[in-house]
Structure formats: structure tokens, C-alpha cells
Amino acid sequence: MNTNGKEFNTKLIHAGAFDDEYGSATVPIYQTSTFKFSSAQNGADCFSGKSDGYIYTRIANPTIRAFEKNIAELENGYDGIATSSGMGAISSVYMALLGAGSHIISSDAVYGPARGVLEQDFSRFTVEASFVNTSNFDSIREALRPNTKVLYIETPANPTMGITDVRACAKFAKANNLILVVDNTFCSPYLQKPLDLGADVVLHSVTKFINGHADLVGGIIVAKDPGIYKKIRHSMVYMGCNMDPTQAFMALRGVKTLAVRVDRAQMNAIQVARFLEAHPKVAWIKYPGLESHPQYELAKTQMSGFGSMMSFGLKGGYEPGRKLMDHVHLALLAVSLGGVETLIQHPASMTHAAVSYEDKLVAGITDDLIRLSVGIEDVNDIINDLKQALETIK
Ligand SMILES: *Cc1c(COP(=O)(O)O)cnc(C)c1O
Questions:
Q1: Is residue 355 pLDDT above 90, yes or no?
Q2: Where does a domain end: 234, 255, 276?
Q3: What is the CATH number of the domain that holds 232?
Q4: Which residue among 91, 107, 111, 210 has the greatest number of ligand 1 atoms within 8 angstroms of its CB, and so is best to mutate?
Q5: Is the Cβ–Cβ distance between 327 and 387 less than 8 Å?
Q6: Are residues 190 and 270 in the same domain?
């Protein structure tokens, strides 16, 4: 369906969908690895690009294309590239935009493996990386080198909830000939549109808000410029980071309710945040929707809502944090985020356990930090669950 000029919720439901000969109401799962050519000439035309017929599912597939076009429209980009996972998206972007001897500036509180793959793998191909506090603009400027090619940011950052000024980064990137890549997983295109703020590439772990039901792993990249899009698609196809048709079908189903899920989750989140902020056992809380968040004003200028992710610390640090983990009943003790269910986790002992103590501190991941992804359950049940678990801490 042509959704040009339509608004966001309409695009969620219809963007990327196409009519088939049966009048299917949803995009079917084209579970096929390969596609027949009608003739030798047609095969030649598909490969040369003269015809846009499908060839092989790693390269492109109708169900996957529908999902790619859907997210590309939501992000106001040129086109999308769906991947097997969020890390598939990140690796494809690195592979396409970095080369021997090039340098990337990245947020220090970036998603752990997004940093790990640079330090442990791309470094073997002489790619240099600097991890800086991108919430402080001077640290980005100081990290610039003659060989810097990419500025990579995550905002809000994982799991410190620090906000990076996307417009300022876009200006800096343009002035210095860098490509600005934004991991928009925490916001989804419903709450933040990095390409509209000046970024060149936006990517997501589809696993989180876009799918929203904790039942698949996936990724997506959207580029603004056709040249950059083609480079990244080449890397994705050649490295084999493609999404699968059934994954794309489920992601298309999930994304339809993105706005209603996020609206509900963030309505819950502000109440949970206020409860935690007022609780005597809570030492601090960072939620972009609280006026106490150091970048509350900046958040308002680039996010249309504050989302449902927050982090907080308990008085007494590590042990009370672990105790809380062991006494919540409704909140699932699990990594991941952005689903309909409330999830809680303790990065110091879980996701960032392999990161050195010094690196954790530099990135703002203190031993007491607890990350909460607020779901769409009834808010009183979420608050009561946290309340009873907090009471077990003496
Ligand atoms: C989960 C996550 C990723 C990685 O996505 P996967 O789908 O798990 O590969 C990347 N960035 C952020 C911010 C995430 O939360």
C-alpha cells in the first residue's frame, strides 16, 4: 500500500505491505530459499539489476522486503536492511563503513557486544576505536583523528540512560566528513527519529521494542543515502547476516502495535519511576522523564516520549541489588528489554560481568545499577512487586 503522506500509526499497520493474487490481509511468509527465473534472460536481468525479481532469500525475499520497507518508512529513510539480529545489523554496518586503518568514535556505555566486536575482532584488521562519554560533547571532539570515519552513538545509552545530543553529533559529523550511526533500540522510531535529526544511518535490535513480545531475535538498519544503503546491503548479503522470512513475518506482526505498546509502557514507567525516586532504599534513579535526569531538557528536544527503560541504584550497592533480583516475582529476572512483560536485571553481575571494573566505572555502570524495562501489565502490580521485594532488604 502507498502510505506516502500518511501518519505514523497508519504506517505501522500498512507501510511495506503489498497486494497478492489472493487478497491476503497480511503479508504472507514466503518460506523459500530460492526463486525460479522465467527464462535465462530473466535470470541474467535479475542478476544485473535490470529486473528487480527475487533471486535467493539471503539477498532479498518478499516478506523480508515488506518489513524492511515498513521500518524505512517509520524512520523516514531511503530503505531498510533486515538482519538476523541486532548484532548482525551492527556488524554489517561496521564491515561496510570501516576498513584497515580507519577509526570509529563510539559511546562508552554502548551495548556490550557492539564494543566487544570492535575491540576483539575488528581490531585484528587494524580498525581503531575510541569509547568516550558521548553525552559530553567535548569528549567526542577530543577523540577525533585524521582517520576517523564513523561516529556511533546510542541514546539513551545502555544501561546508564545517558542522553547524547543527536543534532550536535550530526553537525559535527558533517563538518568532519564522518558517517553518524545511531542505535535507536531504546526509543524505537515511535519516540525518536535520528535520520530527521541529521544522522546518516539508524539501526535497531528488532528483538526489543519493534517486535515487542520477547519471542524473536532480529535487527534492522535504515540509511538515508542510497550510496551508503548499497554498501551496507552488500556487507549484510556477503556476510550472510540476513533475516529469515518467518522472523520478518513475526516482526511485521509485532510492529503494528508498537505505538500502543510504547504509550502504555511509558505511562506505567513514569509512575514506577516516581515510586522508586521516593523510596527510602533507592539511592538514585535515572529515567529521562524525571526532571531529576541531568539531560531531561535535552531528552525533550529529541524524543517525543521518554520510553519505558530506567536504571536505579539501591543504598548499599551490590548486595541489596542481588537481593532485589532474588525477591521480585512479577518482573522477570532476564536480559533484553522492550517487551510487553516487565524485565529487571543487574548489569554488574550479568550483562557487563566480563567488562573490567575500571571500564565499568568509566561507562557509569556502578555495582548497584539495576536496569528495569517496564512492561504493559497493570502498574499497581508492577509497583507492588517492587515494593515487596524492596521490603526484604534490611
Ligand atoms: C539488544 C541490543 C542490541 C543487540 O541486539 P540483538 O538482537 O540481541 O543482537 C544492540 N543494541 C542495543 C541497544 C540493544 O539493547
A1: no
A2: 255
A3: 3.40.640.10
A4: 111
A5: no
A6: no
The helix/strand/coil state of 189 is helix
Same domain flag for 217 and 197: yes
86 alpha carbon to ligand 1 midpoint, in Å? 5
> Rounded CA gap, 211 and 12, in Å?
12
- Measure the CA–CA gap between 389 and 383, rounded to whole angstroms: 10
Q: Tell me the whole-structure pTM to 2 decimals.
A: 0.96
Are 181 and 279 part of one and the same domain? no
Q: pLDDT higher for 347 or 259?
A: 259
Q: Which residue has the cell 538514585?
A: 284
* Pair 265, 233 in one domain: no
Mean of the pLDDT values across residues 311-321? 92
pLDDT tens string 228-264: 999 999 999 999 999 999 999 999 999 999 999 999 9
219 membership: H or E segment, kind and range = strand 219-223
Count of domains forming the chain? 2
Model confidence at 187: pLDDT above 90: yes
Residues 286 and 141 both lie in one domain: no
Q: How far is the CA of 129 from the centre of ligand 1 (A)?
A: 19
User: What residue numbers bound the domain in which 29 lies?
Assistant: 8-255
pLDDT at 322 over 80: yes
Three cell numbers, residue 138: 567535548
Q: What is the CATH number of the domain that holds 286?
A: 3.90.1150.10
Q: Is the pLDDT of residue 118 over 80?
A: yes
Predicted pLDDT at 363: 66
Say whether both 222 and 279 belong to one domain.
Answer: no
Give CA 134 to chain center in angstroms: 17
Question: Which residue from 185, 192, 201, 373 has its CB within 8 A of the most atoms of ligand 1, so it is best to mutate?
Answer: 185
Residue indicated by cell numbers 553525552: 135
Q: Which pLDDT belongs to residue 359?
A: 75
In a domain, 218, yes or no: yes
Residue 190 is placed in which grid cell? 515511535
Q: Which residues are tagged catalytic?
A: 58, 111, 183, 208
- Looking at the fold, whether 47 and 190 belong to one and the same domain comes out as yes
